[in-house]
Amino acid sequence: MKFLLSLLVIVASAADKLLVLYENSRVKVTHRATLAPLADQGYELVFKQADDASLELTRYGVNLYKGLIVLAPSVDEFGGKINSAAIVEFVDNGGNVFIAAGNTVGDAIRETAAEIGVELDEAGTQVIDHLNVNEKEDSGDHTAFLVEAKQFVPAEIITGPVSEALTFEGVGMKLDAANKLVFPIAWAAPTAYSWYPNEPISEYPMVLGKNIVLVAGLQARNNARVVIAGSLKMFQNSETATNILLWAMKCRGVLRESNVKHHLVGETKSPEFYTIMEDVHYELTVEELVEGKWVPFQGTDMFLDFHRLDPFVRKRLQNKNGVMSVDFKLPDVYGVFQFRTNYKRLGYTEIVNHVQVSVRPLRHNQYERFISTAYPYYFSAFSMMAGVGLMSFVVLYHSDAQKKKTE
Question: In what residue span(s) does the OST48 N-terminal domain sit (predicted)?
Fold first, then answer.
């Protein structure tokens, strides 16, 4: 009983806590504007040194925090019980992770990035762009450059409206093509390359141009999110950076569904089974988390599949203030079917809902007495019966006549 109570306490306390790891306490000041919206939405930010010996993310297999924010680019080894394996376990349990790298990248971040399918370039390399330099912040080696709006993923639910260029100064990345869940959030311009500053290029760089990923994102199949940025400076006092961080901590693009219903049109109760060709109504309520509050989802691109081995019916759900519904006629096929709603859009948590139902054929007294398309067969049958009757009459009459003549 004490063990169960301990687990309940851990789960309850983790619901509103975010662990922020740093190696220089100045990030509390330099990144205050980026972190403040998290506190405004009710989260408690727990700041700790990245090498703190008391660090841990999970206890008894349960997450101690909702999210982990790492603002310690050059840390070689996390303190306490945190390492790349512990972070992966944290994500597998539903935790969200944001990691910012920089000009120097420690082994701890490299190993963690590799676990989710992101490869950081070699130690000492930086992304260089001679044509998009930020003259105010660059030290002369053209490693501080501007990232324009067209270099961000076209998904405002992740970035928000990108109204200004951001300054990037850090390491380049590339994605593992085998990992289909990881995707680029921001990438470099065609004129950029990743190499050692102030050194001549002696071999082909790891990545060039648009293939250089500046910010990478991942949404796992359990809807946990991970964002890895190649630059800590990029996430300093920027609305776009704040939106990406909010997305990573699952404060944006979060959906939930409820009140799933299905029944015959004109009724309210779900039957034990349906009959082919009946008119059916299906609906569910979908809400979106916006600034810490659940509001009706406004999307209009959600579909319903009436599925057996393949979809027999596919209909767009009509959105009426968050209530998604559709009426349709069941196919002339019986068996075990599913109402399927699979909503998977970039930046949103997935909605996957399957409801299994049985569809039976018509009973013997439900068929039409006469089928209009069968009238030719009816006519031929009655004609044959009439012909047989007439022939029988003739044969009988003919037999009687012969018998009279003989007598």
Answer: 17-241
Task: Tell me the Ramachandran region of residue 335: left when phi exceeds 0, alpha when psi lies from -120 to 50, beta otherwise.
Answer: left
The tokens for 353 are: 């809902």
In order of 251, 296, 297, the CA distances from 293 in angstroms are 10, 10, 12
* Architecture label for domain 2-248: 3-Layer(aba) Sandwich (3.40)
Structure tokens at 23: 């190696």
Q: Of 47, 89, 92, give the one whose Cα is nearest residue 70.
A: 47
Beta bridge partners of 290: 293
Do you know the residue count of the chain?
A: 407
H-helix or E-strand spanning residue 405 = helix 375-406
Task: Kindly report, as residue ranges, where domains of CATH 2.60.40.1930 are found in the chain.
Answer: 255-364
The answer to whether the pTM exceeds 0.70 is yes
Walking along the chain (407 residues) 10 residues at a time, the average pLDDT comes out as 50 76 92 93 94 94 95 94 96 97 93 95 95 93 96 96 94 95 97 94 93 97 96 92 96 96 95 94 96 94 94 96 96 95 95 94 70 72 72 63 50
